[in-house]
Automatic annotation (TrEMBL):
InterPro entries found in the cross-reference section: Amino_oxidase (IPR002937), FAD/NAD-bd_sf (IPR036188), Protoporphyrinogen_oxidase (IPR004572), Zeta_carotene_desat/Oxidored (IPR050464)
Annotated Gene3D superfamilies: FAD/NAD(P)-binding domain, protoporphyrinogen ix oxidase, domain 3, Protoporphyrinogen oxidase, mitochondrial, domain 2
Name used for this protein in its record: Coproporphyrinogen III oxidase
Residues covered by the Amine oxidase domain: 8-453
Similarity annotation: Belongs to the protoporphyrinogen/coproporphyrinogen oxidase family. Coproporphyrinogen III oxidase subfamily.
Subcellular location: Cytoplasm
Catalytic reactions on record: coproporphyrinogen III + 3 O2 = coproporphyrin III + 3 H2O2
Keywords recorded for this protein, A-Z: Cytoplasm, FAD, Flavoprotein, Heme biosynthesis, Oxidoreductase
């Protein structure tokens, strides 16, 4: 068995293969010299710096289940409860994000109706959601179109868009509502009004509550990568090995590597970005390659700054703030990292993470690090008045890192899986298909492992 890609999805796939089939041997191929993909934790002294995701969504259980299975349960921590406020920039000022939002939908109206984020007309339009007729067809539409249709332009631009940008780093006018938040369309069809549906849910017994919506590991997300890799018993890990192509061979598959070697395998899991998978498929699986190549990606860039905690006093309030696209700034968000999670730095130090709209900042891989750092410092001065110089700065850049679930995404993924159905033992995993979060990627790796084993079994049964 061969797994191509050593990010968290590929590692989870290899780990799951070992769990499901004790006799199996796996080869994991990773082109980079390190495992983990976008998950990368760096230390500056006792400071923990995340280059990629800093947490996972608690309501999606795969990451929590994996961490517990690896003996990391004591390391799992949640958000700091004493710094819960988040702000949104509006006309250059930071205003509190109204509380009570769930999946972009207000569960309580008072916080929004008393917020200066919306004008009186914007608030009236929000209330008019009760009267907007539901869309009952199954056709896809963009998230921006959905939110504007239900709640109006002001709510879409001033509240929903910055929240979505923080999750998907994409254009809400292009992102598919059916691929990102299918629950919203389902609630619309079933209840007619989302405000009415959320009000009904809010009146139900809460059940188990009080947990943090986001979880991480005390020593950083990289700990999860190391734990998975360290737990592999029958997997040969080859870093710095680039796969060039894959083709059917002898009832299984052949994988050609850049060093001239060829691997033969009964099954293959491709846990790489869709555009890389397209290159591996282009000779032997041309139709699937074309669909993969059509899945768009966005780049990501951030700057992490280390300050004396005393320099942040009076400036770092709550967990951070979001910046709507309408503000015309090169950044999309700022996180006061040491207010968000505990144990990120010694008490006398504070961490700040500035996220960029990469297409505006011109932050290509060859741009000097001084450029994004200078922009980040200028934005902090402009937004909150922070004048102090940081003790340390580090730039994180990820070219074509974030898949964009554009309108029609579910149909494209369904077509892709239909095409691969002709090749039992071949599966895809990763963020490009069913979810972009850490738990989504882990779950996709597990599903791919199960599908490949099932496909091999079905193929061997037919062969007999």
């Amino acid at each position: 068995m061969v797994v191509i890609g050593g990010g968290i999805a590929g590692l989870a796939a290899a780990w799951r293969l070992e769990q499901l089939s004790p006799a199996i041997s796996v080869t994991l191929i990773e082109a980079e010299p390190r495992l983990g993909g976008w998950i990368r934790t760096e230390h500056w002294g006792e400071v923990i710096i995340e280059h990629g995701p800093d947490s996972w969504v608690a309501s999606k259980p795969a990451a929590t289940e994996l961490a517990r299975a690896l003996g990391l349960e004591s390391e799992i921590i949640g958000l700091r409860a004493d710094q819960a406020e988040t702000s949104i920039m509006h006309d250059g000022r930071l205003l509190p994000l109204p509380s009570g939002l769930s999946l972009l939908v207000p569960t309580r109206l008072r916080p929004l109706l008393t917020s200066p984020l919306l004008s009186p007309l914007g608030k009236l339009r929000l209330l008019a959601e009760y009267l907007v007729p539901p869309r009952l067809d199954e056709d896809d539409e963009s998230l921006a179109s959905f939110v504007r249709r239900r709640f109006g332009r002001e709510f879409a631009e001033r509240v929903a868009e910055p929240l979505l940008s923080g999750i998907f780093a994409g254009d809400a006018g292009q992102l598919s509502v059916l691929a990102t938040y299918p629950q919203l369309r389902r609630l619309e069809r079933e209840r007619g009004s989302l405000l009415r549906a959320r009000a009904m849910q809010a009146r139900r017994p809460a059940g188990l509550a009080g947990g943090s919506p986001f979880l991480t590991l005390r020593s950083g997300m990289g700990r999860l990568v190391r734990a998975v890799a360290g737990d592999l018993q029958r997997t040969v890990v080859r870093t710095g090995a680039t796969a060039l192509g894959i083709a059917p061979s002898n009832g299984g598959f052949a994988i050609d590597l850049a060093d001239g070697t060829r691997l033969e395998a009964d099954g293959v899991i491709l846990a790489v970005p869709a555009w890389r998978a397209a290159r591996l498929f282009e000779r032997s699986f041309t139709r699937a390659a074309a669909v993969l190549q059509a899945l768009p990606y966005a780049s990501s860039a951030a700057v992490t700054l280390v300050y004396r905690q005393s320099d942040l006093a009076g400036f770092a309030r709550g967990r951070g703030f979001l910046v709507p696209a309408r503000e015309g700034r090169p950044i999309s968000a700022v996180t006061w990292v040491t207010n968000k999670f505990p144990a990120r730095a010694p008490e006398h130090l504070g961490l700040v993470r500035v996220f960029f709209r990469a297409e505006r900042a011109g932050l290509s891989d060859d741009a000097p690090a001084e450029i994004p750092v200078a922009v980040a410092l200028q934005e902090l001065r402009s937004a909150v008045g922070l004048q102090a110089e940081p003790l340390h700065a580090i730039v994180s850049r990820h070219e074509r890192a974030l898949p964009q679930y554009c309108v029609g995404h579910r149909q494209r993924v369904a077509e892709l899986r239909s095409l691969l159905g002709s090749w039992p033992g071949l599966a895809l995993a990763g963020a490009a298909y069913d979810g972009v979060g850490v738990s989504d990627c882990i779950a996709s790796g597990w599903r791919a492992a199960e599908a490949v084993l099932q496909g091999i079994g079905a193929r061997q049964s037919v062969g007999r």
